[in-house]
Amino acid sequence: MSSTPPLNPDDVRLIVENTRIVRPPKQLLATFGTTILHYYVVTEPSYVGLPGAGTEEESVIRTGTVTSARPQLVTPSYLMNLFQGFEHGQEFARYLRSTYGADAPGLMYSYKQEPTDTNVVSDRPDIVAARIAEEMDRDGKSLAVVIRGVDQFWDISLAHFIHALTIGSVPTHAADFAKRGLLAQEGGMPRAAREKIDTMFRAVQAGEIEASDLKTEIDRWGLFGEYEDRFLNLFRKRA
Questions:
Q1: 0.70 cut: is pTM over it?
Q2: What is the rounded CA–CA span in Å between residue 66 and residue 215?
């Protein structure tokens, strides 16, 4: 549970404005598959300036991965469920709704953030971030990003980058979806969303996923009334 008070959109906007992408990845997100990005978020320690903190210049380096699942068409309400593993994910989602409008449709992506390590090193954050970026370029790591973020809210800095990468990927992905007819509407929702629900029904029947996962997806779209009989039939057939 977060020990900090809730942030409003203006608070998040200030964090976003103080975030800088030092080294972006060299390729976009995959359209019809999963993308795993390695991140390096470099920040100035939050204890800088406090009594007894000393005068040595230090930086915090947080590393980990962000897994982006296959993109899907969603509504703004659905967006609130997308950020997993982000302490301030809900607040960032509210910031997006405030900035882009509550009814703005779009191609959205679900993310799972998994940290791997946190280290404190000597030197200023800008120098450390530039050094890591050079190393990524030298090693040819196309799916790695270096971010100069805000220490206490570093995950918002990371979420901001992911959202920016998503926006950059959308034109290509939207064209790919259109070629397959997935942008068409069926019963007031994207065809791609209905196809996903149908796939999940088959997966439940095959024992590949839990029925609770399917129920969660249906509820996110607010469609349980429409799918209720079909969902309950899953259990009747098992009886």
A1: no
A2: 25
Q: Which amino acid is at 219?
A: D
Tokens of 210: 């839990």
Distances (CA, A) of 76 to 1, 94, 97, 108, 234: 25, 9, 7, 9, 30
In 44-92, at which residue ranges do the beta strands (DSSP E only) sit?
Answer: 58-68, 72-74, 83-84
- Over the stretch 9-43, which tens digit does the pLDDT of each residue have? 889 899 999 999 999 999 888 887 888 999 999 99
Provide the sign of the torsion angle of the four alpha carbons 216, 218, 221, 222, taken in this order: negative
CB 177 within 8 A of CB 192: yes
Q: Which tokens in the block code for residue 21?
A: 């992408």
Q: Cα–Cα distance between 5 and 143 in angstroms, integer?
A: 33
Contact 7, 145 (CB under 8 A): no
User: Which phi and psi angles does 189 have, rounded to 5°?
Assistant: -145, 160
Residue 31 and residue 176: Cα distance in Å, rounded?
7
